[in-house]
Amino acid sequence: MMNESGQSLTIRLAMIAVVTCVLGGCVAGPVGNPRPPEPARSVDLPSYLGHWYEFARYDSGFERGCEGVTADYALRPDGDVSVLNTCRKGGPDGPRSVAKGRAKRTGDALGARLKVSFFGPFYGDYWVLDHADDYSWSIVGEPSGRYLWILTRTAVPAPELQMAVRERVRQLGYDLSLLHFTQQK
After folding, report:
1. What domain range is 157 assigned to?
2. Do 91 and 63 fall within a single domain?
3. Alpha carbons within 13 A on the beta-carbon side of 173
4. How far apart are CA 42 and CA 93, in angstroms?
């Protein structure tokens, strides 16, 4: 039988384990790039803001079953970025699911690293690894190599763009076989 201080210690240790898991990226997915690259070029935040379509991603628990995925980024009055991610469960016409969050700039010299949160004080890395000069596509990752997103400004990019962005992802060291190509309307 555990006394009150033993229960308190058990609860504290459990809380520490949960926080460590969340902050340390406790993830079940495969590593698609064992040596994730640093962001390749600077990001002009006003040019990056706006509406994006998810062309492809490394599948993860929080996006499993999502199609028709979009992301909308807007500047907040406090200088942070509002994030609105939308997915359609089961297919591009499925029920809509929305996640609202916020992103903070980290102060890196390129402006390509942000911290994003969808719940409370817990933030994850969001690195714009590369993008088109005109911001028509973007490749987003983070330091574990387990997450990857390819974003485009059009729902279904032209075949030439699809091939070019896949090649760039391969050049960055990512395993293309892990990509889930998002169905869009």
Report:
1. 45-181
2. yes
3. 16
4. 36
Q: How many domains does the chain have?
A: 2
How far the first Cα of the chain sits from its last, in Å, is: 59
Q: Which two tokens stand for residue 137?
A: 């596509």
Same domain, 5 and 93: no
Q: Which of 161, 116, 141, 115 is nearest to 32 (CA)?
A: 141
Whether 52 and 98 share a structural domain: yes
Helix (H, G, I), strand (E, B) or coil at 10: helix
| Token couple for 51 | 């509406």
Please say whether the dihedral angle defined by the alpha carbons of residues 94, 101, 43 and 177, taken in this order, is positive or negative: negative
Asked if residue 66 lies in contact with residue 87, where contact means CB atoms within 8 angstroms, the answer is: yes
Q: Kindly state the helix (H) or strand (E) to which residue 73 belongs, with its residue range.
A: strand 66-75
From first to last of its 185 residues, the chain has per-residue pLDDT tens of 545 444 433 233 233 333 333 334 444 579 999 999 999 899 999 999 999 999 999 999 889 999 999 999 999 999 999 999 999 999 999 999 999 999 999 999 999 999 999 988 899 999 999 999 999 999 999 999 999 999 999 999 999 999 999 999 999 999 999 999 999 99
Q: Is residue 113 part of a domain?
A: yes
Task: For residue 64, give the amino acid letter.
Answer: R
